[in-house]
Each structure stands twice: as C-alpha cells, then as structure tokens.
Design brief:
alpha+beta, SH3 type barrels, six-stranded antiparallel sheet, 2 helices, Ferrous iron transport protein A, iron, Transcriptional_repressor_C
Length: 77
C-alpha cells in the first residue's frame, strides 16, 4: 500500500517508492537521499507538528508537511 511520507507517525519506517513533482525541488530531495528504494524513518514531529524530522541514510533531515506529501512510500514496519 502506497502512502505519502507525511502520513507516517513517530517511529514508523518506510521505503521510498516515488518522488512527485519536478525541477529544483525534486533534485534537492534526491540530493538529500530521498530516492526510490531508500529507507526512511520518522524521528519526531516539531511541537506544532511542522516540520518533521526524518532519518535517511544515517542523516537527520527536517521537511515540512507540504514537502513530505510529495514523497510516496511503502511502510516497512
């Protein structure tokens, strides 16, 4: 079942399936490691629920909900 990255909750892990969109935003995400097949885990939500901290390839990256909504994932946990 494919979900958006922003649908995951604290501690959940998923595999990236697809990055929606194009241009500089998509390139920036891919440069940060958000590529199909990569594993990503939700570390924590900020106090106001935005942004969200993710762990990918050993790095911690924060994304806003609107950015995470453009990343399609498949849950692994």
């Amino acid at each position: 079942m494919t979900l958006r990255l922003d649908d995951l909750r604290n501690g959940e892990e998923a595999e990236i399936v697809k990055i929606l969109g194009d241009g500089p935003f998509r390139i920036r995400l891919m440069e940060m490691g958000f590529v199909p097949g990569a594993k990503v885990r939700v570390v924590r939500y900020a106090p106001l629920k935005d942004p969200v901290e993710y762990e990918i390839k050993g790095y911690h990256v924060s994304l806003r909900h609107e950015e995470a909504a453009k990343i399609l994932v498949r849950k692994t946990t």
